Amino acid sequence: QITLKESGPTLVKPTQTLTLTCTFSGFSLSTSGVAVGWIRQPPGKALEWLALIYWDDDKRYSPSLKSRLTITKDTSKNQVVLTMTNMDPVDTATYYCAHRHPLNAFDFWGQGTMVTVSS
Amino acid sequence: EIVLTQSPGTLSLSPGERATLSCRASQSVSSSYLAWYQQKPGQAPRLLIYGASSRATGIPDRFSGSGSGTDFTLTISRLEPEDFVVYYCQQYGSSLRYTFGQGTKLEIK
Questions:
Q1: Among A17, B4, B61, B84, which residue has the least CB neighbours within 10 Å?
Q2: pLDDT tens for each residue of B7-39
Q3: What is the dihedral of CA A54, A93, A49, B27, to 10 degrees?
């Protein structure tokens, strides 16, 4: 049974760096083909893909946010960490991590964590 | 970057009716990499369809997907009350990036 859960601060100030952790179970990020992604959703708006990390440590980023994002993994802890620098109020959103299906969909999602950016 | 445009933005139908949701891509998308999700209020999205037409585990057969190239469709054959929520399409492209559509809200008429 695959489960994922996001954790991190609920409130950050503008210009600060956000660090979110995805802790998962039911699969290993050392297994060939496995990947975990991050997706966010501002209140009342659409989903936006942010980043993805593969079992072999290859990484992909949203072109519009690439300069601000870093995704890493800790295979021993079954965790994926996303950092986003220079946070702005427009980054207020629910942030989800998700397991990547072999055909590049996202088949298992965490419950999401709401992050508000405000001074 | 491939842009996905979903239409209509809002679809008003009655339970028991058939729903047809559209997802149009700005460039050709591999059918293998087109997915549909359902999102209920306050919940994470749920994968409905992957590979344009394959139902995910546990998804009722009233949900079906079709299409190729730049035009894809999600069809719900007979609407149940719990189907009146928001639906998103998503693609993975040659740029090795993912994009989502802006969503279609299905509301009770």
A1: B61
A2: 999 999 999 999 999 999 999 998 889 999 999
A3: 180
